[in-house]
Amino acid sequence: MADEVTLLDFLPSMFGMRVRIALAEKGIKYEYKEQDLFNKSPLLLEMNPVHKKILVLIHNGKPISESLIILEYIDEVWHDKAPLLPSDPYERAQARFWADFIDKKVNNVGRKVWFARGDEEKETSKKEFFEVWKQMEAELGKKPYFGGESFGSVDIALVVFSPWFYTYETFGNFSMEEECPKIVAWAKRCRENKESVARSFHDETNNYDYVVQLKKKIGIE
Hints:
Elements: E1 5-9, H1 14-26, E2 31-34, H2 42-47, E3 56-59, E4 62-65, H3 67-77, H4 89-115, H5 118-140, H6 153-159, H7 165-172, H8 176-179, H9 181-193, H10 195-200, H11 204-217
Parallel strand pairs: 1-2
Antiparallel strand pairs: 1-3, 3-4
């Protein structure tokens, strides 16, 4: 019996983009079901009763939640196709460490840039933002990808934030290329060399428009 794979997702979601890239890397066909974050579907509530939110991968009727957990699940189930995590235990642990760092740090500092109010808060958020991104740049070093010569799980975990560079730059009034040129070059390399990444990208201005509407909805002008 063929695998039945469904993704409950939201197009601007960088976490959803991770899973879309991973599925494309593995060549897995799936049904995509766009979700309304403010009017959650019965299917989403049924498949993720704990957090009641995206992201959910449904494989043969069984749900898996949280993007990094889903990435590992995809890698383990379809292990014979394009490995995402290193086979060496130490390298695998390091990949998990940096993916966890990205989840805990990169997303948080980006949101601070979006929502900062007043000059002092904006400057503080900008400083924190680049402290984190420069750590990622240092980890990349001179390697083409975070895993070395191979595109892998850490690249997937981080590259999904690059379509948000325009949004960060617009709200933060800075240039990613001036501050983190190696990261910008790496993101471009991922798009140009990996069809899975290029196909998952969408118009960067859509992300900006989404944040503008989100700020209005929660009362931040």
